[in-house]
């Protein structure tokens, strides 16, 4: 149902550890889970600290694009930051969806920092029974 579009993800992760965090101009990937639940395909993205208004979801044909932005929290003038490990900036993910999914009826919910997309499996992709008819009889062609 889902095809990975980033074969170098582990290399990117290692590079990020060596070169430092992502910047506003270079988005970082967001962790996700994907699984089938009944007649739906579910994709869940971790986006803690992101407001629902800062999430942008686009689908074009079978390409799903999710983009979110986490901005710094404004602090009082007398606050001195001692440690800052939570990443800020733009997070994005592109996923190629199989043709067997109904991209016209995707539902998105955001709760407790988790964006959950539910994508129905298209009717044409569901297993179905095909009945076998019995013909009226054989006809022979004579020449």
Number of helices: 1
Q: Report the order of strands and helices.
A: EHEEEEEEE
User: What is the 3D form?
Assistant: elongated
Give the CA-CA distance, first to last residue: 53 Å
Structural class: mainly beta
Mean pLDDT over all positions: 82
Rounded radius of gyration (Å): 24 Å
As a percent range, the share of helical residues equals: under 10%
What fraction of the residues are assigned to beta strands by DSSP? 25-35%
Unreliably modeled segments: none
Q: Quick one: how many beta strands?
A: 8
Main sheet: which strands, in order across? 1-6-5-4
Characterize the largest beta sheet: strand count, sense, and whether it forms a barrel.
4 strands, antiparallel
Characterization of the model:
The protein has 143 residues and is mainly β. Helices cover 8% and strands 35% of the residues. It has one helix and eight strands; from the N terminus they run βαβββββββ. The protein has one helix at residues 9-19, and strands spanning 2-3, 32-37, 40-46, 55-60, 63-70, 89-97, 107-111, 114-120. A four-stranded antiparallel beta sheet has the order 1-6-5-4, with no helix packed on it. The longest helix is centred in the first third of the chain and has 11 residues, at 9-19. The radius of gyration is 24 Å and the shape is elongated. The model has no long low-confidence stretch (mean pLDDT 82).
């Amino acid at each position: 149902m889902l095809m990975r579009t980033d074969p170098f993800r582990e290399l990117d992760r290692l590079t990020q550890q060596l070169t430092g965090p992502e910047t506003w101009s270079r988005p970082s990937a967001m962790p996700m889970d994907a699984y089938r639940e009944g007649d739906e395909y579910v994709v869940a993205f971790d986006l803690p600290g992101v407001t629902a208004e800062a999430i942008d979801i686009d689908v074009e044909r079978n390409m799903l694009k999710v983009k979110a932005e986490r901005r710094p929290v404004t602090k009082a003038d007398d606050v001195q930051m001692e440690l800052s490990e939570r990443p800020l900036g733009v997070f994005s993910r592109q996923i190629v969806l199989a043709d067997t999914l109904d991209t016209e009826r995707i539902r998105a919910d955001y709760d407790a920092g988790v964006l959950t997309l539910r994508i129905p499996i298209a009717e044409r992709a569901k297993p179905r029974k095909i009945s076998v008819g019995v013909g009226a009889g054989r006809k022979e062609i004579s020449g």
